[in-house]
Design goal:
Elements (H helix, E strand, L loop, with lengths): L4 E5 L16 H12 L2 E6 L4 H10 L6 E3 L4 E3 L4 E3 L4 H14 L4 E3 L10 E5 L4 H14 L5 E5 L4 E5 L4 H12 L6 E5 L13 E4 L5 H6 L2 E2 L4 H15 L2
Parallel strand pairs: 1-2, 1-10, 2-3, 10-11, 11-12
Antiparallel strand pairs: 3-4, 4-5, 6-7, 7-9, 8-9
């Protein structure tokens, strides 16, 4: 079957039942498979480590194409491709942050499998307090080349300019996709970099206001049901 286009989608908060759940929405699961049956490549783009994203894609029947670590690494079906620089330095910065944050931050278990985007969990503090502490320490050590984002589940640190758009652009190039048939779906501020790589950006109904402002399409329904809403409309337009 000829590929009609590609849908790049975030996972947490976009395919799940809500923004605080890790349970995939039933309607979203059906929509993912319908998109593939209709001739669309579906590529998950997540802050999760690449093995998690690739495994999920493979076992859901999406083919195993995956972009992990907020765009820093991807699996093109054959190889792991690292898109970002200074990855070893990022690992050292993560250790410094945990040490200097006085018990507020700890490394995610996924960092054992991460290459260039390190995830830090917070404890005994709010998300905002943890973000503030992270940025303060980075400023004190002169790490202005490190960017800090949050997924709502963890704080992520990576080289500046290393966002989801990097991985999406590389995947488009590797697969030889036509840019006009690219769609990206997300829910959070961490999905904003998608805007730089996608002609059509979709925000689910309960997305962060900052993402909604940039989106071409905002669904009426939230999270996974919002994704299913968009998928149904896309398939109807190009059956």
């Amino acid at each position: 079957m000829k590929v009609k286009g590609a849908v790049f989608t975030d996972i947490d908060g976009t395919l799940t039942t809500d923004r605080r759940s890790s349970v995939l929405d039933d309607a979203a699961l059906r929509a993912l498979r319908e998109l593939v049956k209709s001739g669309y490549a579906v590529i998950m783009v997540s802050g999760n480590s690449l093995p998690v994203v690739r495994g999920l894609s493979l076992y859901l029947g999406l083919g195993g194409l995956a972009i992990g670590e907020n765009g820093a690494v991807l699996f093109d079906g054959y190889n792991v491709i690292v898109e970002c620089e200074r990855c070893e330095e990022i690992k050292e910065i993560a250790k410094v942050l945990v040490q200097e944050a006085e018990g507020i931050l700890e490394e995610s278990w996924q960092n054992l499998f991460r290459i260039c985007d390190m995830a830090l969990k917070w404890r005994g503090a709010s998300e905002d307090e943890a973000l503030s502490a992270t940025r303060k320490i980075l400023k004190e050590i002169g790490a202005d080349w490190v960017e800090v984002t949050t997924s709502g589940y963890a704080i992520h640190i990576h080289p500046v300019g290393c966002g989801k758009d990097r991985g999406i652009r590389k995947m488009i190039q590797v697969l030889g996709l036509e840019i006009r048939n690219i769609y990206c779906v997300g829910d959070a501020v961490s999905d904003i970099p998608m805007r730089r790589a996608c002609p059509t950006l979709v925000a689910v109904g309960n997305a962060d206001p900052e993402l909604k402002e940039l989106a071409d399409i905002v669904t009426e329904k939230p999270s996974g049901k919002g994704f299913a809403e968009f998928a149904a409309k896309l398939i109807a337009l190009n059956p």
